[in-house]
Design goal:
By secondary structure, the chain is α+β, with helices and mostly antiparallel strands. It has nine helices and five strands. This is Holliday junction branch migration complex subunit RuvA.
Length: 200
């Protein structure tokens, strides 16, 4: 129900926007990252999810299907409700969150509003195998300025942290590497290479 709503942005608030569609103003709760993408007067398409509680009913909104999918994953974790899910999405983009989760970065995740160390550990435990490894975004590292051999080693280590074997990781990195590539580029292309092999 209410998969998405198209209309004109009439109001922008700290944690929500109002979209008018056919004379009806829909108040939609969103992450701050999503809200920052809109301006009053925009003709917008907002992906939505209707949340029904015993004493309340409200719409949560997302700027993309990817953000909505991450919200669904986060709120499937025990003790994470819609408001905490949106606050986590305000902390980082879906691709960044995916990278934190599959690499088990408890420190980064625990910095999100409403998320402590125990909750971050639950997120990693329950979602690590559900994240699309080809749709994540690793943060740039200082290793990008080091000689290529170190960049390659860092890429192999990152792939192994995602659950691939050393042999798979080395093969993928050797296949995709080329002069001038940084660590992040190597990891992204290596993930695509591994996924294409698995589909054959």
């Amino acid at each position: 129900m209410y998969r998405y709503i198209k209309g004109t942005v009439e109001e922008i608030n700290l944690d929500s926007i109002v979209i008018e569609n056919n004379g009806i103003g829909y108040s939609i709760m969103m992450s701050s990252n999503a809200i920052s993408r809109y301006s009053i007067g925009d003709n917008a398409k907002v992906y939505t999810k209707l949340i029904v509680r015993e004493d309340d009913m409200y719409l949560c909104g997302f700027y993309s299907g990817e953000e909505r999918k991450m919200f669904d994953l986060l709120t499937s974790v025990s003790k994470i409700g819609p408001k905490v899910g949106l606050s986590i999405l305000s902390f980082a983009e879906p691709k960044q969150l995916g990278a934190y989760i599959i690499s088990g970065d408890i420190t980064k995740l625990s910095k999100a509003p409403g998320v402590g160390k125990k909750t971050a550990e639950r997120i990693v435990l329950e979602l690590k195998d559900k994240i699309d490894k080809t749709a994540v975004e690793f943060e740039p590292t200082l290793l990008e300025t080091k000689p290529a051999v170190f960049t390659e080693d860092e890429a192999v280590d990152a792939l192994m942290a995602l659950g691939y074997t050393q042999a798979e990781s080395k093969e993928a990195v050797s296949f995709v590497k080329s002069p001038g590539m940084n660590t992040e580029d190597i990891i992204k292309k290596a993930l695509i290479y591994i996924s294409s092999k698995m589909m054959k």
